[in-house]
Amino acid sequence: MSMSNLDFDLDTLVKILDYSSDEIFVLDKNMKIIYVNDACKKHYGLDKEDVLGKKSVELVENGYWTPSIFPEIFNKKEPFVVKQKTILGAELLTSAVPILNEENEVELVVTTAREMQSYKIIKAREESLDTAEQPESPFAIITNNEKMKNVLKFSQKVALANSTILILGESGTGKSVLAQYIHENSKRKNGPFLTINCAAIPAELMESELFGYTAGAFTNASKSGKKGLIESVEGGTLFLDEIGDMPLPLQAKMLQVIQDKKFIPIGGNKEKKVNVRIIAATNKNLADMVANKTFREDLYYRLNVVDIHMPPLRERPDDIVPLTYNFLYKFNRMYEVNKLISEECLEWLTYFSWSGNVRQLENLIEKLVITSEDVIGIEDLPEGIYTHGKRQIEQTTPSSLNEAVEQAKRETVRVSYKLNQSSRKVAADLQISQTQAAKLIREYCQDLQEN
Questions:
Q1: 221 touches 213 (CB < 8 A)
Q2: For residue 405, what are the contacts with CB-CB under 8 A and spacing of at least 6?
Q3: Average pLDDT of span 133-145
């Protein structure tokens, strides 16, 4: 069939562009995004409907990519090439081309972005680009989940205070990442941030490591003494991970640091002052430990001035795909490869319950990057995840034509409501009456209205 006999309508063209591995954006003269293809999901963790209609500056301000190519392209009115980094960790080579009207004003901007990792020979290309270092993306936590977004909003508020914070959650949920997020959003962000894992330091060494010691404090002690880790975080934030594993004798000393900002090094007789904020975390039930006399009650209440609960990954399935891409970019760079992941494999990952949470997902992606061929597929998944995904697929496959039609109907209404947010606009979009649209929204979109 010759090209002249092909009949391309808009829907066909859009489908073709969605198959492109390169990201394609089209912006109008107001820098509003009027088209984007499916590649935005793997670069930013966002569906197309989450991007369309937004202004480019809004996504830049929220850290989805950096640096911005606007408004420079509107000022120079000529093609522009830049290296960018996205919130998921993708490194892109982005080309922007302005389309001018008869008055020589920018009418549209078409941008295409290709992952730098996909270039096998990029040395010459990079040398032709501006070699100045690009600014790093602001510290961000990747999430599309409402529960997690609420956690981040609350964390931003308490970050500005100087209160002690206790982060609670299962192992692997990202408590240490949240602690750093709080530090980066606090007035202490220019000071040091130090993590101490209380479960990783032997009990007999913990006191000298935390509080330091004076010269000759004990046998084999350094002649000049040693500054403790707490003192080294002056003006910054100290994150005590697994605080529930701190030995009882040290808890009294830590209470003094939190309460009075003072401590005495081992072998010393003078108090030292320290200006440090304490953030603690645990996967244990400290209230039960207090009841069992294995954790000091006064320290518990001093730590628990503000408590934040990190939701487990099984309660935020909408974060699995963006987190997967984030780890994929990370380990592709680490091992100097360019592994891809199939849509089917991504779908199976979202079915799994992830008892080890984000850490388990990260470890899996590292293993898959090392052991898989060019494209990670479901056949590369460990037996437990493969079996679980297969069982879920079988349970969700429509058993009849009516069930298949019902699933398609539900998904169509939900997608339209996400985009339009009103029964009137959904009615126009789906070419049905507003009464029928309102009924379908009540039936299929109750959870979206609650959010």
A1: yes
A2: none
A3: 66
C-alpha angle with apex 92: 21 to 69, nearest 5 degrees? 115
Closest CA to 92 of 120, 70, 69, 116: 116
Name 96's bridge partners: 80, 111
Cβ distance 161 to 308 under 8 Å?
no
Given pLDDT bands bounded at 50, 70 and 90, which one contains residue 153? very high
pLDDT in tens, 349-398: 988 889 999 999 999 999 999 999 999 999 999 988 877 666 666 555 56
What is the pLDDT at residue 235? 95
Q: What is the Cα–Cα distance from 173 to 177, expressed in whole angstroms? A: 9
Residues contacting residue 255 through CB under 8 Å, at least 6 positions apart: 296, 298, 299, 302
Helix ranges, 236-371 (H)? 248-260, 286-291, 297-303, 320-335, 343-351, 357-371
Residue 71: is the preceding peptide bond cis (ω within 30°)? Answer: yes
Residues 197 and 361: their CA atoms lie apart, in Å, by 21
Q: How far apart are CA 224 and CA 41, in angstroms?
A: 56
What DSSP line would sit under 154-172, residue for residue? HHHHHHTS---EEEE--TT
